[in-house]
Amino acid sequence: MKKLLVTGGMGFIGSCFIRTMLAKHEDIHITNADQLTYAGNPDNVKPFDTCDRYAFIRTDIANAADVERLFEHGSYEAIFHFAAESHVDRSISHPEQFVVTNVLGTFHLLEAARRHGVGTFLHVSTDEVYGALGDEGSFSENSPLEPNSPYSASKASSDLMARAYVKTYGLPLIITRCSNNYGPYQFPEKLIPTIILRALQDQPIPVYGDGRHIRDWLYVEDHCLAIEAAWKRGRVGEVYNIGGHEERTNIEMVRMILELLNKPASLITYVPDRLGHDRRYAINPDKSAKELAWQPKLSLTQGLMETVQWYVDHRDWWERVLSGAYREGW
């Protein structure tokens, strides 16, 4: 049985990775280390509560003793490090927590992995570390790191610390950087679930600035399959960009979702732009396609249809989140 450690496994992407891996592989055991912050939801992995190939340990990665406790029964075939504060708006109003979790927390994991040994350390990052693009071109793995928000700066810092542990200590580590994820179980503060849930409730949908900020969109399960491919076929010390080849403006995304839900465009409400709002991201995933033999399976049209339908069918899930009931008993 291969022992895997997943940090942040109660969150959106981490929980998808757990569901995907346990469904695909019968020879793995996953330990889920999560602090259960507001964005962590036990409902995301509830079917595995009684699974003998799954265990949950409540862990604050910013606490070195908590991290050490994860290794008390030995090391892991692989560590998949998803745990992070990730909401840009929150990083603008409360930047310190992003430094504590994303930088200090990553350091503690790297140290523990170095001391205890690990098969492979998969450090999951973001295209936001590259900063903003003009109207043309795309980020490659060799693009300079030019973060523009406290969130992206904290992730860039953790990327550089991860790189240093490869170069200095020989830690077998791979960095992945993804474009904007979407899909089932995403916390309602993010753009796509915000649009869907407000539309379902006939509430105004806030759009920053002129709505023409551009992002590349990637279905969350496709992202998780890319991370699995990086674990199996990636080269130690390398960075792999993971993108969907699906660039859209924010206002296009809003209109696509409203059309799927048969809701009026009159719900759109333009609000003042946020501070440090990057105008455009675009990511070149050719290296991942070539070296990892990975391609996204779902187009944006297919992925949005599945995502919208999931929120329509799982009203109980998002109502528990909106009411705060998902945090009862923590």
UniProtKB/TrEMBL annotation:
SUPFAM superfamilies referenced in this protein's UniProt entry, alphabetically: NAD(P)-binding Rossmann-fold domains
Pfam families in UniProt: GDP_Man_Dehyd
Enzyme class: lyase
Keyword Lyase belongs to the record: yes
Residue ranges constituting the NAD(P)-binding domain according to the UniProt record: 5-306
Catalytic activities: dTDP-alpha-D-glucose = dTDP-4-dehydro-6-deoxy-alpha-D-glucose + H2O
EC number(s) per entry: 4.2.1.46
InterPro entries in the record: dTDP_Gluc_deHydtase (IPR005888), NAD(P)-bd_dom (IPR016040), NAD(P)-bd_dom_sf (IPR036291)
NCBIfam families reported for this sequence: dTDP_gluc_dehyt (TIGR01181)
GO biological process: nucleotide-sugar metabolic process
A single MF term (Gene Ontology): dTDP-glucose 4,6-dehydratase activity
Keywords: Lyase, NAD
Name the record gives this protein: dTDP-glucose 4,6-dehydratase
Family: Belongs to the NAD(P)-dependent epimerase/dehydratase family. dTDP-glucose dehydratase subfamily.
PROSITE patterns: PROKAR_LIPOPROTEIN
Co-factor requirement: NAD(+)
